[in-house]
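Quick one: structure tokens for this chain, please?
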Amino acid sequence: MHCLRFSTISFLSLVLLGSDALVHAAIFNFQVRTPSVADPPTAPPLSRRSRHFARADSNSTSSSSSRGTIPVLNTLNAEYISNITLGGRTIPVLLDTGSSDLWVTGDVPGTKDLGKSVSLSYAVGNAKGDVNTADLTLNGFTVKDQAYLLVKDTSTFSLDIKAQGFEGLIGLGPNTGSTIRDELDDDEAGDSVLSRIFSQNTTTQNYLTLLLDRKGDTTDAFTGQLSVSELVPGFENITTMPKLPVDKVHRLTDADQHWQTFTDNNGVIGPDGQAIAIDSIVPKADDGELVVVFDSGFTLPQVPRKMSDAIYGRVQGAVYDETHGYWTVPCDQLINISFMFGGVEYPIHPLDVSSSDFNILDKNGNPVCVGTFQPITSAFSLLGEYDIILGMSFMRNAYALMDYGNWVPHSKNDRDDPFIQLLPITNKQAAHDDFVKVRMGGVDKTGDSAHALLPADQGQSSPVSSAEKKKMYEEKILSRWPYIFVGCLAFVLIVIGLIIWRCCVRRKRARATAKNAKKLNINTSSSVYVESSYPDFGAHHGGNSTPMKEMHGGHQQQQQYNYDADNYGYYPGKHV
């Protein structure tokens, strides 16, 4: 059973962060701005990575255009939900590319309990229950006896998840990250939903695509869609985009494998149009590159602290909240940033760089917006496997295709390595105009001095806590453990090899000594002593002298034999 590994904590940003007791999670009390509906739900206190805000807008659902296209419900840019059918029951589940397991609540008709308990732990609460199997349908694809976790008790969560519009979670990540599969001793019956679908449909291409829409965007001409082995109509150009190879983690830690790849060299462009230079914590990353995880389960992207500071620290009026670990900025401050992958630029809509979905007030009671690209802390990779987690605020700006390739063992047509393709869907000028309309009331004030960035030497930097410093130190050691392990193993093998070689040499010498002694055929009973012409090797070579007794004329004489280390034998020496 695995507890609080990254494949499970991708969901914790939804409803579960509310305590400092686990993984350095923190709370700040703010409410989500809810739509104008009768009797709106009371929004709970949210953590710095929370994504659980309010009931979904029923108008955000779109119809499926084909078998492989599934409508995705958008809850205020905070959670993305689709329906599955399990045991004949339709269940709304969160879409999470950062984990690999399926769990649901409530009754499932015809379910079979396998008698194995699993607990998926989060910062506040846990999804705990028995592993069950039931027939599953995902938009036309049917899987018999799909393994899933049936969660009976959700009281450990901070709120009623059903009231928030979902009753479970489907993990869309690599199969190796499945806790259920691990509990079933890697039995294929415990494989993830997508792995089962691809294994049964061996002639299909092993990919999914995800298109996320944006609430409050006046220019969005599409709604959210999930597709399996099929492209969303109108976005077919994604196949022309560079195939970004999935960065594979060490196989000893493949349970932490995610949809992750490398940025280009200096691949993050800041608000001033210049690259943000950050050193990767991943040992195998080339200079200037960063390892990025794409996770639809994170509302707010997690980036290195220096990067977050570079994005928000030069904004006039920006404030870093040390208690809760996030930046706030004036809501009318337009901030442009971009990411570079495979030589392609992916601009981020300024509405996604700061969020007005939270009712945050500054010390003077004025509304402010939350900087969405937060300093990475509780999701920090102690094993040094990634630098950045790009959640919804990034993924709304790129249509994503994730190809499982040879992660699916029984596939016939898709045997290449896994890869990711991203199609940019944000136009810089259109995004600029949209921001002006939404945040500035239609009056473009972006050129005013009040909205200009501060000089670089006047920019603010957020403080690093002692706990974070400790994590950074631990990461420097733990991230290199495979190399340390391999180095130690190589050293041990070399030492063992030297010992074996030395033993072989000594054994060879011993055999040679015995052989030479037989050749000498020394007759120790001879009565004639002959002065040896051999030199005294014992004196000159540190050999051992072996005195021997010899009878001559009725009295004893002593014959000395000296050991010749160079010729492996005893030779007669001088009479003593």
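The longest helix spans residues 481-520.
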